[in-house]
């Protein structure tokens, strides 16, 4: 630790060093099998043990109830934008809350498969606050309601998931939790399906996690590819076709790492959440107190994972980024659609990395004020 620079990439993103080292040590020979994990049959007993353990660890970490299936798929978040409506919409109505780029993309893609309605949007607020659930125009007959629970680009996060039943809807809630999975607990009482790519908080790109309530299986459209039919995938324990074996293995190492994390009496995801709150508070606190930097997101919905910020004098952006690189702080450039900077501070980013960033920001401010 401390030898490598701190990496603030939004994804694929920094991983726990212990996980990388373990994967490297196992590269040529996993557990005395004489094979690296990439060289094993997905149907052999060795990989079977890896996949079973990974699923059990994820179920434990996220407290996934028994009536939910955990599916290991491929295609990433964007493929799920099509796979979810193919499986859940029945070609009818689905409701979308647009809160930033990712939920906007989800709604557009779903239009190919169903009557995908925008029931609320924060575009007029320039994506700086979440649309208030009390004002959502929920359709009476929606097959599901989709939200992006953490908008990676705009830096907004739902700190409580909407209670659709309390809002008078019987529809299951679908959450795209790609960029904050395992950073906090999930209230499964309020969720029908959650999906996310692994490449931010869990492991390498190529693995997509889907967690789906069992009553939502078995309603796929005829056109749905078999390999993307949740029921087919579930019935075959995610082995209908070759799953992303390397991704499952490395994510499994991350799950074991997560299970070992401790903060006082807290363990696992609860420990991570505690740490993530402290990291985010420290960074936002510094930005808010400064006249040199700003974050434009409404305080109650700021993301703990993705912190976009701007230099008030944007002519200094290039100097800021060059100095950051020289100080060992990588990939801080904001998404091109938003501009400015973005610090992604996922589970693998220690508090020391956030402190190093704030120290650099303070130095830069001092020398350029
Ligand atoms: N949803 C969210 C919230 C994301 O952050 C991303 C990736 N940045 C995606 C979907 C798209 O995922 P993928 O690139 O894995 O298709």
From TrEMBL:
Its EC number is 2.6.1.52. One of its GO terms (molecular function) is O-phospho-L-serine:2-oxoglutarate aminotransferase activity. Coiled coil: none annotated. Its main location: cytoplasm. Keywords: Amino-acid biosynthesis, Aminotransferase, Cytoplasm, Pyridoxal phosphate, Pyridoxine biosynthesis, Serine biosynthesis, Transferase. It comes from the Bacteria. The modification N6-(pyridoxal phosphate)lysine is found at residue 200. L-glutamate binds at residue 43. InterPro entries: Aminotrans_V_dom (IPR000192), Aminotrans_V_PyrdxlP_BS (IPR020578), Pser_aminoTfrase (IPR022278), PyrdxlP-dep_Trfase (IPR015424), PyrdxlP-dep_Trfase_major (IPR015421), PyrdxlP-dep_Trfase_small (IPR015422). This is Phosphoserine aminotransferase. It comes from Variovorax ginsengisoli. The gene is serC.
């Amino acid at each position: 630790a401390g030898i490598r620079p701190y990496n603030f990439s939004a994804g694929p993103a920094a991983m726990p060093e212990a996980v990388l080292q373990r994967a490297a040590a196992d590269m040529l020979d996993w557990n005395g099998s004489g094979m690296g994990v990439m060289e094993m049959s997905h149907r052999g007993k060795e990989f079977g043990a890896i996949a079973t353990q990974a699923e059990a660890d994820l179920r434990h970490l996220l407290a996934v109830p028994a009536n939910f299936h955990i599916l290991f798929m491929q295609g990433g978040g964007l493929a799920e934008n099509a796979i979810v409506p193919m499986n859940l919409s029945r070609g009818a109505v689905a409701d979308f809350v647009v809160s930033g780029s990712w939920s906007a993309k989800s709604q557009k893609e779903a239009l190919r498969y169903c009557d995908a309605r925008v029931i609320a949007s924060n575009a007029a607020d320039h994506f700086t606050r979440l649309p208030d659930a009390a004002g959502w125009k929920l359709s009476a007959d929606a097959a599901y309601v989709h939200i992006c629970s953490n908008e990676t680009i705009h830096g907004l996060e739902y700190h409580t998931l909407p209670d659709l039943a309390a809002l008078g809807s019987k529809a299951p809630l679908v959450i795209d939790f790609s960029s904050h999975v395992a950073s906090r607990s999930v209230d499964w009482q309020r969720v029908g399906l959650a999906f996310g790519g692994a490449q931010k908080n869990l492991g390498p790109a190529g693995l997509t996690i889907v967690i789906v309530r069992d009553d939502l299986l078995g309603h796929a459209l005829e056109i749905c590819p078999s390999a993307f039919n949740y029921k087919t995938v579930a019935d075959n324990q995610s082995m209908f076709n070759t799953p992303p074996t390397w991704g499952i293995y490395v994510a499994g190492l991350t799950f074991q790492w997560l299970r070992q994390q401790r903060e006082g009496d807290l363990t696992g995801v609860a420990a991570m959440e505690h740490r993530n709150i402290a990291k985010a508070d420290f960074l936002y606190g510094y930005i808010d107190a400064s006249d040199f930097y700003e974050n434009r997101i409404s305080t109650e919905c700021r993301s703990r994972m993705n912190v976009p910020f701007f230099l008030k004098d944007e002519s200094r952006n290039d100097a800021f980024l060059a100095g950051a690189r020289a100080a060992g702080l990588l990939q801080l450039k904001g998404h091109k659609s938003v501009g400015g900077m973005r610090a992604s501070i996922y589970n693998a980013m220690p508090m020391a990395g956030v402190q190093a960033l704030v120290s650099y920001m303070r130095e830069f401010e001092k020398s350029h004020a």
